[in-house]
Amino acid sequence: MAEHDRQSVLEELLDVLLGDWDPEVFLAGAAEAAASRLGLAAPGGCALAVNRSRRPLLSARSAGLAAEAAGFGPGSPAGTVLGGGPDAVVPDVRAEQRWSAVAGAGAGAAGVRSVAAVALPLAGERGVLACYSDRPNSFGPLETGTVRGFAATAAKPLRLALLLDMQTAKAANLQAALESRTVVDLAAGIIMGQNGCSQQAAIDILRSVSNSRNIKIRNVAAGVVAAVSDRVDTHFDE
Questions:
Q1: pLDDT per residue as tens digits for the range 68-101
Q2: Which pLDDT band holds residue 45 (cuts at 50, 70, 90)?
Q3: How far is CA 232 from CA 26, 176, 219, 223, 226, in A?
Q4: What separation in angstroms does the CA of 192 have from each of 26, 73, 206, 221, 234?
Q5: β strands within the chain, DSSP E
Q6: Is a pLDDT exceeding 90 seen at residue 173?
Q7: Whole-number pLDDT of residue 172
Q8: Are 79 and 92 in contact (CB under 8 A)?
């Protein structure tokens, strides 16, 4: 892929990112862009997936590519790369012994004949770009190099989308923690006023109820606050 081609691809992907930086939306846009740029029409196409630590697999595929073709299981080319294996090129899934299961029940059944799956160069996560063609021997060295070039270019805005998503998740967790702490503090204050006890004693009462009833301490505290007033607002504006 020439330098000016890489730049135009990057501009297209940045437009997708600026439109909506949700990683799932970006992956869908990147899959469509890859299929279009690489000339892979249905029943072929492209799919991308990212393995994120302690979070569900993130994946998307281009329109017209069947779900059974774009598999990310450990026995598939894309799944092998996603699991840390080397890039995989399958000249003809019908003749490839290693991928016999794919030929019979996955890509082959969906009309796919050849596959190229390459790693997305991401920091901290493992990702894959998988390309599918309805013609055998579609991914020679030159074509596979083009797929790798697209993967390298797509990885840059994808890393940004993943980073933004991670920061948003952290902010949401912090928001929830602050609201939880606030309602617990309010409940502790109510218990202190009712019982004339210290703050620690009030917290111990909440914790004891939480443990005995197997209910989160925040829910116990919310019940205490609601019993006093249904107009107490613990919402934090962003």
A1: 888 888 778 898 899 899 999 999 888 877 765 5
A2: very high
A3: 40, 16, 14, 12, 8
A4: 51, 56, 11, 13, 19
A5: 45-51, 58-61, 88-90, 114-120, 126-133
A6: no
A7: 59
A8: no
Long-range CB contacts (< 8 A, 24+ apart) of 223-228? 224/187, 224/190, 224/191, 225/183, 225/186, 225/187, 225/190, 228/190
3-class state of residue 55 by DSSP: coil
Kindly report the pTM of this predicted structure.
0.68
pLDDT at 149: 93
With tokens 């989308």, the residue in question is 161
Q: How far apart are CA 140 and CA 147, in angstroms?
A: 11
60 contacts: CB under 8 Å, gap ≥ 6: 24, 27, 28, 30, 31, 47, 48, 49
Q: CA of 141: how far to CAs of 1, 60, 110, 185, in Å?
A: 12, 25, 25, 64
* More confident call, 174 vs 183: 183
Which DSSP symbol is given to 87?
-
List of domains in the chain: 3-168 (3.30.450.40), 170-228 (1.10.10.10)
